[in-house]
Design brief:
By secondary structure, the chain is of the alpha+beta class. It folds into 3 domains: about 20-110, Dna Ligase, domain 1 (2-Layer Sandwich), CATH 3.30.1490.20; about 115-245, 2-Layer Sandwich (D-amino Acid Aminotransferase, Chain A, domain 1), CATH 3.30.470; about 255-404, Succinyl-CoA synthetase domains (Rossmann fold). The chain has 13 helices and 19 strands. The protein has helices at about 5-15, 30-35, 75-85, 145-150, 165-175, 180-200, 240-245, 255-260, 280-295, 310-320, 340-355, 370-375, 390-404; strands at about 20-25, 45, 60, 70-75, 90, 100, 105-110, 115-125, 130-135, 155-160, 205-215, 225, 230-235, 265-270, 275-280, 300-305, 330-335, 360-365, 385. Strand 17 (about 330-335), helix 11 and strand 18 form a beta-alpha-beta unit. Helix 5 (about 165-175) crosses helix 6 (about 180-200). The radius of gyration is 26 Å and the shape is elongated. The chain binds adenosine-5'-diphosphate and magnesium ion. Adenosine-5'-diphosphate binds next to strand 2, strand 7, strand 8 and strand 11.
Length: about 400
Amino acid sequence: MNIHEYQAKELLAKHGVAVPSGHAAMSVEEAVAAAKKLPGPLYVVKAQIHAGGRGKGKFKELDANAKGGVRLAESVDAVEEAAKEMLGNTLVTVQTGDEGKQVNRLYVTDGVDIAQEYYLALLVDRASGQVAMVASTEGGMDIEDVAHETPERITTITVDPAQGFMPHHGRAVAFALKLSGDLNKQCQKLAKKLYDAFIEMDCEMLEINPLVETKPDGDGNAELLVLDTKMSFDGNALYRHPDIEKMRDETEEDPAEVEASEYDLAYIKLDGNIGCMVNGAGLAMATMDIIKLNGAFPANFLDVGGGATKEKVTAAFKIILKDDAVEGILVNIFGGIMKCDIIADGIVAAAKEVNLSVPLVVRLEGTNVEKGKEILENSGLPIVSADDLGDAAKKIVAEVKEAA
Ligand code: ADP
Ligand code: MG
């Protein structure tokens, strides 16, 4: 699950990490009120969408020369102006796709006098089974180019979660960022706080870009501040963090995926035209592979889970059919815990209820498979039965071609 920048900063602040002060705003009035609560004279108004690249983004409704989704404002009036231009409009960035994302929330925050921008991210490194801390002196809006063109400027430091964060990890991060003196010490402390926050909140990713070094104040003191952050959480651990779960913004998510999660279905929309309903993630992956092997593409990944009920199967059918791209459905279910005849009942009831309008191929295997096939045959519905995975994929691809 992803959250907005302002929410991530709230969470980081709770873990003792230094962030500039700021307030979220859902309307122009709120943005003005937010600015009035800040000291000024420099404010930054930031579009809150679940995508990065906002600074260099473009608004669909504004002309091409208009500024992007991160705007410096030198007065409360300028904050108002920026809020008016951004709210309700659609921001297109390198991460949103061409359709962009509508800006419904803003974050009005203190303008910071930046001396240097760094990059620091924590993520779960599946290859090593450890937490990777990725650091670079080349922070800011072009980190993707740095990764491509000069990968040697990015350092990865892995922390074994069984051992935990050690002082040497902190020193390695500060060294990678080429920091010295007091900033080096600040960085070591920050790295530890971020690691602790990452583990404590069951994060999947915590990216800070940029982490900034401020220009020295009158006493010559500079500070490390988190200026932008992206955070995502392990969905399977969210039950441990009801406060974080509340931060979910469903308007940022695919509506079909939101509906699927209400029924506890694992659904991810893809680009193809063959809808898949499968039980078990491994079988779902194999089904998608074999569809591709037969020259077509899956429209989705959908795992109805081990104990699929009639209600779940119906909900799954409805979700698949809401996708206009779907031209055929392949059901591939292994009746282990669930018996095939019960699944067949569910499929027939669901197909009748949703008024199935595209070809449906069903492959059942496992307990009571004969009974299940009989139910499908006697249903009076144009369901094509398949014997194995290969047969099922061939049949659905052929059916879809024929219908086209
Ligand atoms: P995105 O990564 O989505 O483009 P950022 O929050 O990183 O958005 O903002 C882009 C750039 O805007 C930053 O690299 C930084 O230079 C500048 N910026 C962002 N927030 C502030 C701030 N509070 N004060 C000064 N400059 C900022
Ligand atoms: Mg950024």
